[in-house]
Every structure is written in C-alpha cells, then in structure tokens.
C-alpha cells in the first residue's frame, strides 16, 4: 500500500487491468494524494447519496403524478392509460419524449404545445410537482434517509 500517486498513474496504463488496479490500489492513496481524510470523503459520499435519493424520489413522484394526470384526463373517455401516447389536445400531435418530462417539459415549453402553440393546462406541472414533493417528504420522514 505504500505506493505514490505517480506509481498508481503508471500502473493504470494497461487497459484490461486498469479497473482492478484502480479500485484495489489507487482509491486509498488517491484520497491521500488529494489531501482528504477518510472522514471528509465519508461525509462527501453520504451527502452525495442523500441528494441522489432526494432527486430520485422527486423524479419518481413526478412520474407518478404525470401518470395519474393522464389517468384523470382519460378516465371515462374510452382511451387506454398507456396507449395512445400523450398528445396535444388541440392539434393531436404526439408529444416528444423530451417534452414529456414531469414539470421540466412544461417549463421548457413555457406551457405551450411545441407544434401548434396552444396552452397546456397548468394543472399538469402542479400535480406532478405536488407528487414529487410528497414522495420527497415521505422519503425524508422515513427512518432510512
């Protein structure tokens, strides 16, 4: 374990052994080379995982809210909940996947259809945001976060 940073970088040259050498040898000394203590890296990883969990819960809640909005809109219309795809109620053009992201898509489009410019009701991002916040709140109230 008494290797220097330069020796670790030289040891990483062969591609097939790169991952094994890096994970076994370089990580402990890389932390030392950067001047970080174990306690600091532990806190950074813990904080990073905590924020990842919060963002994941928010994204999951937004997706659930988006799906429930579709269910609400299509209930009683005879349409399925999964097919046909989401579309503009005015021009009937399919909504692109990157415009269909919960809350973000509505904000990027400024609340209007990309193809015809008609308004998209504000209930969609509000319900999605409410579910995202509910999932984050429930997640933070759990003993695991």
Write up this protein.
With 145 residues, this protein is mainly α. The protein folds into 2 domains: 1-35, no CATH class; 47-141, no CATH class. It is built from 5 helices and no strands. It has helices at residues 5-11, 15-33, 38-74, 104-108, 123-141. Residues 5-26 have low confidence and may be disordered.
Mean pLDDT metric: 77
Q: Could you tell me the radius of gyration in angstroms?
A: 24 Å
Order of helices and strands: HHHHH
Question: Strand share of the residues?
Answer: under 5%
Number of domains: 2
CA-based shape: elongated
List the helices and strands and how they pair.
Elements: H1 5-11, H2 15-33, H3 38-74, H4 104-108, H5 123-141
Compact overview of the structure:
The protein contains five helices and no strands. It has helices spanning 5-11, 15-33, 38-74, 104-108, 123-141.
Which characteristics define this entry?
60% helix; 145 residues; elongated; mainly alpha
